[in-house]
Every structure is written in structure tokens, then in C-alpha cells.
Design goal:
single chain; 285 residues; alpha/beta; Rossmann fold; UDP-galactose 4-epimerase, domain 1; 2 domains; seven-stranded parallel β-sheet; two-stranded parallel sheet; 12 helices; 15% strand
């Protein structure tokens, strides 16, 4: 039995459907969800839908019964994730799960990326629990740039403070396919895998891709961290959000999203989605 947590989320749903497309019988796939009514399409395909919440240890123990391989999709509640992930891992241990696959952050154990500490703590929890595990350190999603792409097409500029820092982004579908490959492998090799796109890009490259697609001039305006924060506040972002975005760009400038790895394309057996292809899909809708 292969179980996917967060199965109605953007990544989890792609993994569940990817497992079915890979030939895993629907009855051997379990979708753990907070709201079963959102998983009607999965249930209709024969997937076992089980209700559980990361904060409810009892529901997790029930939901993970019979699981051989588990994909723990990281939670979305910042500040609560370590405790919540711990609940899942304890339930997995009690259920006798044979393999845990966890979606972590790039370079989680050694990075300034503001998202990383809870992922690094979860990786330590996985080691402490002692279950065989594959940690997939997923890089940035190309979809995170969808709004900046649309804005750049309208305004003629991309604004940030990441300098020449590169981003090894790939699509959610690419990362989901990587998880499917691990979950269905004959003998998955436990360990940590840095996953990212084959062709890292800078925000200047992003601007150039938008320019190539639209046929208009699009430039990258690189600001200092204080200038960037003031710009974001002027765009109406809350203080905390602006600070987070600037901290992210500063981490990118320091190389936090450059993996130097082609492990993802190796797992999925094809190149990852190029930036130009994603920009085209966003702008052509």
C-alpha cells in the first residue's frame, strides 16, 4: 500500500494521479486528506480516501494502517510543521511503514533559506524515528513565478534583490513525478536527494524569457535589500510578507536555490520543464 498525505494539495494530488498513471492499482493507493469531500475525484477512481489531520495523532494512526510506503508531503502551517510531522512519523512507526519519503527544502541542513529550519528539524526527526527514508529536497516551484511572469508581461520589468543568484526551479509536475519514481521503485535507496531543474536561471533570465515570449522589452531591476522591502511595501504587501520575500531573495543571491544536481531528471527519465516552456504556458493560459 502506498499512502500520500496532503493528497488534495497541489503536489499531493499530482502524486496520487501519477501513481495511478504509473500503473499502481487504485485500491493500493491511500489518499490521506483533511476534507474527504475534496477528494471525490480520487475516490471515484478507486483510491482509498482516509481522513486525518497532521495535528490529530489518533486520526493519523488509523489512516496509516496497512501502509508499506508513505509520502509525507510537508505541511503548510509555518511554526507547527515539526510537531505535525512528528505526529505522522510516530504513526508511521506504529503502523510498521517500511519506507518514508519526505518532501524537504533545498540544502535544508545548511542554508539561509527562511523556509529551511522546520525542514531540517523534520529530517532530524526522521533519523531519530529510525524508519528507512528518502528525503527529497525539492527546489523552488516554477509556479511560484507565475504572478511575477504575468506582472512582467504587463509592466516590462521583474523586480527583486537576488542579484545573479540562480534558481534551480522545476514544475510541481516534475517534482511529483520524482516522488512517484521513488515510491514505485523496486528497491528505493534511502538517503537525501537534492532535486531541481536541469537549467538554473536568474531573475534576469526570467525577464529575458518573458521578453522573448511577449516580443517587448522586459528588464530585471535588481535592488538592495532595503530598497526591495520598500518597493514591496509600496505594492501593498504586509511588513512580514515583504521581509520574507526579501530574505528569500537574499538567500537566492547566496546560492540557496542552486543545487548543481540533475537527479530529478534522472529519476523521471526526461528533462525537467524549461523556463521558456513554463513562461509560454503561463502567458498563453
Amino acid at each position: 500500500m502506498i499512502t500520500v498525505t496532503g493528497a488534495t494539495g497541489q503536489l499531493g494530488r499530482l502524486v496520487v494521479t501519477g501513481l495511478l498513471d504509473a500503473g499502481v492499482p487504485a485500491g493500493e493507493v491511500v489518499a490521506v486528506v483533511r476534507s474527504p469531500e475534496k477528494a471525490g475525484d480520487l475516490s471515484a477512481r478507486g483510491v482509498q480516501v482516509r481522513q486525518a489531520e497532521y495535528g490529530d495523532a489518533a486520526s493519523l494512526r488509523t489512516a496509516l494502517q496497512g501502509t508499506d510506503r508513505l509520502l509525507l508531503v510537508s505541511g503548510s502551517e509555518v511554526g507547527q510543521r515539526v510537531t505535525q510531522h512528528g505526529n505522522v512519523l510516530q504513526a508511521a512507526k506504529a503502523a510498521g511503514v517500511g519506507l518514508v519519503v519526505y518532501t524537504s527544502a533545498p540544502k535544508a541542513a545548511d542554508t539561509s533559506l527562511p523556509l529551511a529550519p522546520e525542514h531540517a528539524a523534520t529530517e532530524r526527526l526522521i533519523a531519530d524515528v529510525g524508519l528507512p527514508a528518502v528525503v527529497l529536497r525539492n527546489n523552488w516551484y516554477l509556479e511560484n513565478h507565475d504572478q511575477p511572469i504575468r506582472t512582467a508581461a504587463e509592466t516590462g520589468e521583474v523586480v527583486g534583490s537576488s542579484g545573479a543568484g540562480t534558481i534551480a526551479a522545476a514544475t510541481r509536475a516534475d517534482f511529483a513525478a520524482g516522488a512517484v519514481a521513488v515510491l514505485t521503485a523496486a528497491e528505493p535507496e534511502p538517503g537525501v536527494v537534492e532535486l531541481g531543474g536541469d537549467q538554473p536561471f536568474t531573475l534576469a533570465d526570467l525577464a529575458a524569457a518573458v521578453a522573448a515570449e511577449t516580443g517587448r522589452e522586459v528588464t530585471y531591476r535588481d535592488l538592495s535589500a532595503p530598497e526591495h522591502q520598500q518597493f514591496l511595501l509600496g505594492q501593498g504587501l504586509p511588513q512580514e510578507t515583504a521581509e520574507f520575500v526579501v530574505a528569500l531573495d537574499q538567500s537566492i543571491a547566496q546560492g540557496a536555490l542552486e543545487t548543481g544536481s540533475t537527479a530529478l531528471s534522472g529519476l523521471i527519465g526526461r528533462p525537467t520543464t524549461p523556463l521558456a516552456v513554463h513562461v509560454r504556458s503561463v502567458l498563453r493560459g
